[in-house]
Amino acid sequence: MKGLNIILGCALLLVTGCGNEYKAHSIAEDFMKVNMTTDDIHHVSFVKYDSTSLISDSLVRVLQKTPVPLYKRNIKFEGIPTDTLIYVTAKYERYDSKGKPIKYQNTFYLDKHLQNVVAVIQN
Q1: In whole angstroms, what is the distance from residue 120 CA to residue 9 CA?
Q2: Do the beta carbons of residue 103 and residue 91 sit within 8 Å?
């Protein structure tokens, strides 16, 4: 019986973790749709999901003001940075006028409650 409880507990943690990762990807994807200056991007994939407590409020404010290629200027970020931030990294391509792919990678920082993107950077 104890072994079954351990297995069920591990399964619950796994499902919860996957759900949070999916939610973070979804929030980042919605942010891209609303704030990018183009919708001509291809092969979008999310390659990393993790958390960090190494980004201070002041650094978040700097990141919020730093222009990111293909994104609108002066994005109004919702939410307040939390002591721990969740981040997801997206990779995608855009094609130049000759049809050659240009690769991009952005990291999105979300509050720990997975409600809002609080900053985005170009990697």
Answers
A1: 34
A2: yes
In b/e form, how buried is each residue of 48-85, taking b as 16+ CB within 10 angstroms? ebeeeeebeeeebeebbeeebebbeeebebeeebbeeb
Judge whether 25 and 45 are in contact, CB under 8 Å: no
DSSP label at residue 110: E
Helix, coil or strand: residue 112 = coil
Tell me the CA end-to-end span of the chain in Å, nearest whole number.
48
In the chain (123 residues long), the average pLDDT of successive 10-residue segments reads 43 55 96 95 94 94 95 91 95 95 97 96 95
Please report the sign of the dihedral spanned by the C-alpha atoms of residue 69, residue 71, residue 74, residue 78.
negative
The tokens for 123 are 């990697």
For position 51, what pLDDT does the model report? Answer: 96
pLDDT at 16: 45
